[in-house]
Amino acid sequence: MLFNSLEFIIFFPIVVALYFIMAPKYRWILLLFASYYFYMCWNYKYIVLIAFSTVIDYIAGILLHHSKRKGSRVFYLLASLATNLGLLFFYKYWNFFAENVNPVLDNFNIFRDVPIYQYLLPVGISFYTFQTLSYTIDIFKRQREPEYHFGKFALFVSFFPQLVAGPIERSVNLLPQFHKHFTFDYERIKSGILQMAWGFFKKVVIADRLAEYVNLVYENPHDYTGGSLIIATFFFAFQIYCDFSGYSDIAIGSAKVMGYDLMTNFKRPYLAVNIQDFWRRWHISLSTWFRDYVYIPLGGSRVAKWRWHFNTMVTFLVSGLWHGAEWTFVIWGGLHGAYLVIAKISDTLRAKFNTSIGLLQRPGLHRIVQILITFVLVIFGWIFFRADNTSEAFYVIRNFFNFQGGELNLFRVPADFIIAFAAIGLLIFIEILEEQIQLYEKLTKLKRPVKWILLILLTLAIFILGMWESQDFLYFQF
Questions:
Q1: Is the same domain home to 298 and 206?
Q2: What confidence category does residue 293 fall into, taking pLDDT thresholds of 50, 70 and 90?
Q3: Using alpha carbons only, how large is the chain's radius of gyration in Å?
Q4: Residue 155 near residue 33 (C-beta atoms within 8 A)
Q5: 422: domain range?
Q6: Segment 344-356, tens digit of pLDDT
Q7: Taking 90 as the threshold, does the pLDDT of residue 59 lie above it?
Q8: Angle between helices 150-158 and 27-40 (to 10 degrees)
Q9: Is residue 472 part of a domain?
Q10: Using an 8 Å Cβ cutoff, are 241 and 270 in contact?
Q11: Cα–Cα distance between 8 and 319 in angstroms, integer?
Q12: pTM for this predicted structure
């Protein structure tokens, strides 16, 4: 079931109505049933994987907590890791592994191919796998106690607002909320609906409209050059941001309607002043997950410089691979790691250069330059993220400034093109205001009639300007 579908528009109000009608102690049953139904609307067979991971991690968590012997605790942790990562590897990475290993075997005259299987990638498997892994790892580290209520633990794994594309919640944040009783709160519900509406606007008005141009170019990149490639890549930067942050807004808003607080997943990433700042703002639930469970265990930054460079590169290469079983994603992750390493190495040199040209004496201009440079670096990385393979990615790069033909007639539907650019402009304007004056906080303090007018206008814009073909969210494939 997609958020941007008629099914969800019917499903969600029914769940919310039943939620507030039911006695609080039974609400977990409704939400668990709704979450499993929500997932099975995509493919009912794969619910078995979620149920299996839930049972394994529930048992592992309790055994980890009560076991006193280090060897036993390590065994239970490895059992949880092997189960979750094994399923993730098989369904997401097995064919990638086979396609890269088989040529190597052939070169050594080992004529036994690793089999390749044809099956669907379970939606959300990367998200709920990481969510359950953090639970067992935290128990292993003695940072939390296990959840003994099996039903509420199962709900933590499968909570429908964030099940298939995050945010990747931590058990210390979400699980305790399932033990609380939330009452009907008009202001909280209105705030949640407003956040959902903003998420729908970003998805159906901006992301899905930009997708038409992006797909047209990137599905046949060799037909285009220069301006077409630049515009398609620029559009993709906002498509993926509005698509994914739009999903997060709908997820966070729908959970808020029922009383639950999910973590913030995006904080205006295209206003970042450097790549490190970008990752403090982009897909925060994932970047903090890799920080806590990969980067810091490797030693973090409290090591020798060469080791910090290594830790950074490993973290970002694994992060790239998490996004997809293609070399394009690995290169994308490696690029961001390289950006950080180069920035660290050149920090003193850049400071001297900025001082020599007087940029540091003009902080406003300096910030704008930093934002633009960061945005260009991020956009360059998006080429690999969007391209179907490395060959097409390098074609786009080679022809980025080739203006000798193959241009896309973007003005064949002038209204769509104008709406797309206007929507991007509105998004940038709103995010700058939010960055400078905390716009959302000020909106919440407006008088009730004004807030309702804004919500009605936003809703009308969604239904009038939105693309309602129920396009999948991009991060469903991860």
A1: yes
A2: very high
A3: 24
A4: no
A5: 188-465
A6: 999 889 888 888 8
A7: yes
A8: 40
A9: no
A10: yes
A11: 31
A12: 0.91
